[in-house]
Design goal:
Layout (H helix, E strand, L loop, with lengths): L1 H14 L32 E3 L3 E8 L6 E9 L14 E8 L2 E5 L2 E5 L4 E4 L6 E4 L5 E9 L3 H5 L2
Length: 154
């Protein structure tokens, strides 16, 4: 439980950013992607893209300790799912900001509201849909440990 509490605190710290004051990343070799440095992102700066609602990609970049750290914010209309249940080798942390969702976790569907936190372990079937009558908004934080992305390439 202590590990999940730490993950919630760290996730909440990332999610609560409201202004962008991006520090320049350290120069990287031309063949390597830029390492994500400390950053804060204003909501207005994040472009929305359609996805059975809207998704805003905050970042999806390598960091000093991860092959990739991704954060996006999804807004789903009532009754919609972002995609069918699925699984993947990376882990993700989901924080419900607004609305009511049904989350498939460990083979069980659970109804959750604002402030709820969902941890999806690697390679476990999971899914999420808006089970309420208002838009549901949730933050997703996913990470790939060193070697995971390379291992998935054909």
């Amino acid at each position: 439980m202590r590990t999940l509490s730490l993950a919630v605190v760290l996730g909440a710290a990332v999610v609560s950013a409201n202004v962008r004051a991006a520090a320049p990343a350290s120069p990287a070799p031309a063949a390597s992607p830029a390492i994500l440095g400390s950053t804060a992102v204003s909501w207005e700066e994040i472009q929305a893209r359609p996805l059975n609602g809207r998704a805003r990609q905050v970042f999806k970049d390598p960091t000093a300790t991860l092959d990739e750290l991704e954060m996006h914010v999804t807004t789903l209309p009532p009754g919609q799912a972002s995609h069918p249940p699925h699984k993947h080798p990376d882990e993700e942390l989901i924080i419900v900001k607004e609305g009511t969702v049904e989350a498939l976790v460990n083979g069980v569907t659970k109804r959750l509201g604002p402030g709820s936190v969902i941890f999806q372990a690697a390679n476990q079937m999971h899914g999420l849909r808006n089970a309420g009558d208002t838009p549901a908004v949730y933050h997703v934080i996913r990470w790939n440990s060193p070697g995971m992305l390379k291992a998935r390439q054909p």
